[in-house]
Amino acid sequence: MAKWSLEKKLKIVKEAKRLNVKNSTYLADRHNVSDNTLKGWIYKYEMFGIEALTHKKTKPHYSLEAKQEIVLYKLKTKESYREVAKKFNIIHSSTIAGWVKKYKENGILGLNNNIGRPKKIMKNSKKKPVKKKKTKITTNNEDRIEQLEEEVEYYKLEVEFWKKLNTLLTEEESTRKKQK
Question: Which keywords accompany this UniProt record (predicted)?
Fold first, then answer.
């Protein structure tokens, strides 16, 4: 896949706007760019400006609360991913689609960032980790405590989710009453 410079992208997009091209196939063929790529550039330029056409070295980070708000909005309003992305100023609508998919599969916990490689389990290594001698009862208790702590964290997030949903629904209801 070829990387296009910002100048080249801008030149092509401005040419498309100048010619008021409805069918971008001709222009895409002329510049040896796929039609979908050109349409994407035009859309991004119109919605978000020049900034959207630049290649970012780092991905933007979104908090769990922001993701949750956006996903709940998407599910509640049934708007398209593009419309939601435009409303929340997110350049790639596929980002929201990924969040919705994770949310449907794993709930709120699916929206957490699991960035990086998972830790490897040492197997048949020359260096063996020092093991503390534990009785079976102590190990079982520690495992149970860890499991309960994870459940508590999950339920805290779930309560937070329901509070947020309740707030959104209450706000929507009050705006409906004001409009009537």
Answer: Coiled coil
The separation between CA 135 and the C-alpha centre of its own chain, rounded to angstroms, equals 44
DSSP label at 1?
-
Confidence of residue 74 (pLDDT cuts 50, 70, 90): very high
- H runs (alpha helix) in the chain: 6-19, 25-30, 35-48, 64-77, 81-87, 93-106, 136-179
Asked whether the whole model's pTM tops 0.85, one would answer no
Domain spans, the chain: 6-53, 64-115+135-179
What is the CA angle 6-24-47, rounded to 5? 55
Neighbouring C-beta atoms of residue 43, cutoff 10 Å: 16
